[in-house]
Amino acid sequence: MRNIIITFGLFGLFAGCGEPSPKSVDFGSEDSNKIVRLIEDIPDYSGNPTKLEQIVIKGGDVSYISTSSVEVQLVGKPKVDGASASCGLKIFAPGGSLLGEKSWTFEKVGSDWKLKNAPVK
Fold first, then answer.
1. How far is Cα 97 from Cα 79, in angstroms, rounded to an integer?
2. What CA–CA distance (Å, rounded) separates 59 from 62?
3. What's the DSSP call for residue 10?
4. Higher local confidence (pLDDT), 9 or 63
5. How sure is the predictor about 24, in pLDDT bands with cuts at 50, 70 and 90?
6. What are the residues whose beta carbons fall under 8 Å from the beta carbon of 9, sequence distance 6 or more?
7. Are the C-beta atoms of residues 85 and 39 closer than 8 Å to each other?
8. Contacts of 52 (CB under 8 A, 6+ apart)
9. Among the four 53, 56, 66, 110, which has the fewest Cβ within 10 Å?
10. What mean pLDDT is reported for the chain?
């Protein structure tokens, strides 16, 4: 499984891993691929609350995105069940120490996937 590491936080926003974009990697289904792209695109939204609202369901718990500086690494592929999905991620502190492994949840709204719950602690 190819690793994707994404760093986001208040100031240092970038995504990458020194390999081709995840957009060219197949994670098993169109929905899984969309979820991976959403995770990859978080840095583009995290510094702008108005843009962030576009990728989070109403009432979703993702407040950490604009207040934390962490790296995330996919663990396996997203698990899609109808209009709900989950994805395992390893959470790292800046500098690389492992903080833990968390499961993020997503909800499909129309044809788009949105973050529902994305804990880092």
1. 26
2. 9
3. S
4. 63
5. low
6. 46, 67, 68, 69, 70, 94
7. no
8. 45, 46, 62, 65, 66
9. 110
10. 78
